[in-house]
From TrEMBL:
It comes from Limimaricola pyoseonensis. Residues 129-264 form the Mandelate racemase/muconate lactonizing enzyme C-terminal domain. Belongs to the mandelate racemase/muconate lactonizing enzyme family. GalD subfamily. GO terms for biological process: amino acid catabolic process; carbohydrate catabolic process. This is D-mannonate dehydratase. Pfam families: MR_MLE_C, MR_MLE_N. It comes from the Bacteria. Signal peptide: none annotated.
Amino acid sequence: MKITGAKVFVGGPGKNYVTLKILTDQGVYGLGDATLNNRETLPAAYLRDYIIPNLIGMDPRNSEDIWQFLYRGAYFRRGPVAMAAFGAVDMALWDIKGKLAGLPVYQLLGGKSREGAMVYAHATGSDLADLMDSIAHYVAQGYKAVRVQCGIPGMPSASYAVPERKGEGEGKNYITDYAGIRPKIETWDTGRYMRYMPGALMEIRDHFGPDLHILHDVHHRLLPREAAEFAKAVEPVGLYWLEDPTPAEDQEALRLIRQHSTTPIAIGEVFNSIWECNKLIENELIDFIRVAVTYAGGITHARRIVDLAALHHVRTGFHGAPSHSPISMAAQAHLNAWAPNFGIQEYLVLGTPQCDALFPSEHRLASGMMHVSDAPGLGVDFVEREAARYDYTPGSHPVVRLEDGTLWNY
Ligand SMILES: [Mg+2]
């Protein structure tokens, strides 16, 4: 069996999804997602210019050898651009493998460990009352877990993932990236955040009671000592997790947080290999690993991370921002169905009619639980005539500065 060709598409409804379609001499094709948010043309070029010419003639069933060929063969290993491109190839090969076997991918991984995988939604508000409305909206739909992000009184501009105007975030996939190459500048004030947010989280707990899983994302904004103080301050809230309390380049910083708090810590959405998280996992400095199957090198590599995490009581919480297409979300749904150490899945409803028309699938969400498709392979298709409607639109994440102009972490 041989790979005979492959195509890359960039575009989609509201997002520049990078979709890879690998074709074979037996008529079976596989789909992968290489979307790297706001840098989408780069993995697309990596695929077109370097990877696809090498794939032609290879046996698509040898997904492990092809992964090693791409990774070791690159010489300049890792990095989100390369790993997203490798991830797309790997997803497509698992899709082909499942279709050849007539089995959903989760069966190739070891079968189902659960009937449904808990997901969390994003609630956001320009102020606390606005956020409460947004949380109530998701609770009413049956969600068991909600990430909560709130405007901070006196903050010079909206804080992370928070709309500037009341009601803008409710029931929508509110995200803070912008069209255009030049980013919007946001202003951050750590003191105001540290003084306000623990109390706001406690009000949310009091209002919604003990059963709701409450998650909060600091989005890399705090220094290690501040993060330790914050994690300690929010202990009475009983968070499901505190996400990215500090940037994870300095991984020893997580030890300081651990020494001062039992609040569960989730990190890893910007990691792109096991080599960014193996020490965090082995030293049990985190509770949830947040890699994405896209830029952590596909199912083959993400599975290695999941297995290492399982040895150290670290559970999964795969990234699920709206920049992940239904193809990588499906790949994660199969891993979530199997992983013995599954925790939770970030999930923003992609289900617009346009998105469903482009990526038809039987994966379904009900009462805050994701139910994986039983169709062979990944269980998502890609309609090329729909894809022809969309173009690439440049976009950017905001850039954050302190009030005096000092550049900070988005
Ligand atoms: Mg996050």
